[in-house]
Design goal:
Number of domains: 1
CATH class: Alpha Beta
Oligomer: single chain
Number of strands: 9
Strand order of the largest sheet: 1-2-3-5-7-9
Helix content: 40-55%
Radius of gyration: 17 Å
Order of helices and strands: EEHEEHHEEHEEHHHEHHH
Largest sheet: 6 strands, mixed
């Protein structure tokens, strides 16, 4: 599939989903284009893996489309503002439990919702020399919703979690690697090739997608095996149950 917002390509057993909306800010149109690409990956058969990347030289994803949030009528191309919250959270829950291996190639800044989306992937690779990961809600005078806090807590150590969500720490690649937030760093010229190699390595795990996705549900879904009564995927899909 291909749209102005998202391109999806396949080479052998590796799908590459490329976000191509400039700063790749999240709005309802972007959520729906991303979900449509996931539909195509999920409709495939056999052992495959998914790499998520960005066409931007500077940004992986710069977070929420704030201009649209503040004045939806001025940006009709961004979609239905009322539908966004539930659809975005549900998409994140879908990514975290996606039934094939998912690899995120973070080529630049990933802020707010962009950082959140990267954490929903199984493996994160990051450009070594440039870009930050940051949950900047505190700087913006916002509270992080409970389902998003659960996601961060599941994917980070306790100290990294607190620095991220409460102190709005900006993680450069070496520090993110040391904290275990990303699994590997690489020069920007090599980042996508490294991501594709990791995807090809992990694709055989999706030969039994029911098993691969099912264990993710055990880790992150209802009555999760770690960190409390429910995991972030369940909470994201049922975000209306939780106060923001």
């Amino acid at each position: 599939m291909s749209s102005e917002l998202i391109q999806l390509d396949r080479q052998e057993n590796v799908f590459t989903l490329t976000m191509s909306a400039g700063e790749n800010r999240w709005n309802t149109s972007f959520v729906r284009a991303f979900a449509q690409a996931l539909d195509e990956v999920e409709a495939s058969t056999g052992p495959v893996a998914l790499v998520t990347a960005s066409a931007s030289e500077k940004f992986f994803s710069n977070g929420l489309d704030l201009a649209w949030v503040q004045d939806p009528a001025a940006h009709p191309e961004a979609g239905d503002r009322q539908a966004f919250g539930g659809e975005f959270m549900a998409l994140m829950g879908r990514i975290i439990t996606f039934p094939v291996p998912t690899i995120c190639a973070i080529n630049g800044h990933a802020f707010g919702a962009g950082f959140m989306a990267s954490l929903c992937h199984d493996v994160r690779l990051m450009r070594a020399d440039r870009g930050f990961l940051c949950a900047n809600e505190m700087q913006l005078g916002m509270r992080i919703p409970q389902p998003e806090l659960a996601l961060f807590r599941h994917k980070m150590s306790g100290s990294a979690f607190f620095e991220t969500v409460q102190l709005a720490k900006r993680w450069a690649a070496p520090a993110a690697l040391a904290a275990g937030i990303v699994q590997q760093i690489a020069d920007v010229e090599e980042l996508l090739a490294v991501a594709h190699a990791k995807a090809a390595e992990l694709a055989p795990l999706a030969a039994n997608r029911e098993n691969y996705g099912g264990q993710k549900e055990t880790l992150f879904g209802e009555n999760a095996a770690i960190n409390g009564a429910h995991g972030p995927a369940y909470m994201l899909r049922n975000s209306a149950q939780y106060g923001h």
